């Protein structure tokens, strides 16, 4: 355990601490969905560190302490988290949640995020989405849904997000403080893409609702949008 707080890893420090054998979060008993989610959310970014420290109204301080002291701090300081630490968190989620199989079954990452963010820590939704002018929806992460497209062989995240929003007629109601994106996947037998290139920056200009954008023909402020 590493009870004191540690900053997220950046640049050369991230490579030095996280690269090599016995690095990352140790997997055990179908924990991969949670291991990957926790690593993505905390290893190299502080955007969700409020989950570790803020006394939210409905916050379970015990779960918050396990997440902070047994998982995030060791990951950032030594680059390694024992499977027993993740199991400790999974046991607490089983006790607090409506599902009894968090300790042994594979789950959808969205199910894990909704449980820990909404029911256990009481965080406000991170995303506000609107589809086709209907009532806005609030959520904690966005899962990419799209049909197979032959022209995309090795896509990047920017392409996938834009095409997914377009096919679902979605817009972001406002700029999100944190944009958690779940890549498309279809189990062990079939993968839509063998590889996806991470986009180091994400341009959401065209995804924002009622955002001023320039006309692609004359350069002035656009008044019409064509999909």
UniProtKB/TrEMBL annotation:
InterPro entries: Papain-like_cys_pep_sf, Peptidase_C19_UCH, USP_CS. GO terms for molecular function: cysteine-type deubiquitinase activity. Its main location: cytoplasm. One of its GO terms (biological process) is protein deubiquitination. GO terms for cellular component: microtubule; spindle. It comes from the Eukaryota. It is found in: Cytoplasm, Cytoskeleton, Spindle. Gene3D superfamilies: Cysteine proteinases. Residues 24-204 form the Peptidase C19 ubiquitin carboxyl-terminal hydrolase domain. Keywords: Cytoplasm, Hydrolase, Microtubule. This is CYLD hydrolase. The gene is Cyld_1.
């Amino acid at each position: 355990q590493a009870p004191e707080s540690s900053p997220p890893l950046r640049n050369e420090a991230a490579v030095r601490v996280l690269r090599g054998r016995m690095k990352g979060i140790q997997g055990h008993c179908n924990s991969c969905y949670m291991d990957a989610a926790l690593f993505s959310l905390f290893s190299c970014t502080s955007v969700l560190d409020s989950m570790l420290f803020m006394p939210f109204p409905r916050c379970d301080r015990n779960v918050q302490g396990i997440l902070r002291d047994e998982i995030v701090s060791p990951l950032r300081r030594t680059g390694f988290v024992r499977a027993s630490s993740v199991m400790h968190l999974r046991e607490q989620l089983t006790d607090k949640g409506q599902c009894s199989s968090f300790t042994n079954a594979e789950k959808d990452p969205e199910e894990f995020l909704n449980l820990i963010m909404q029911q256990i820590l009481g965080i406000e939704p991170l995303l506000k989405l609107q589809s086709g002018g209907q009532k806005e929806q609030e959520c904690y992460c966005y899962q990419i849904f799209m049909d197979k497209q032959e022209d995309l062989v090795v896509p990047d995240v920017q392409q996938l997000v834009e095409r997914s929003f377009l096919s679902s007629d979605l817009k972001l109601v406002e700029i999100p403080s944190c944009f958690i994106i779940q890549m498309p996947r279809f189990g062990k037998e079939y993968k839509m893409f063998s590889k996806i290139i991470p986009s180091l920056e994400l341009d959401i200009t065209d995804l924002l609702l009622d955002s001023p954008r320039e006309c692609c023909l004359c350069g002035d402020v656009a008044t019409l949008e064509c999909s």
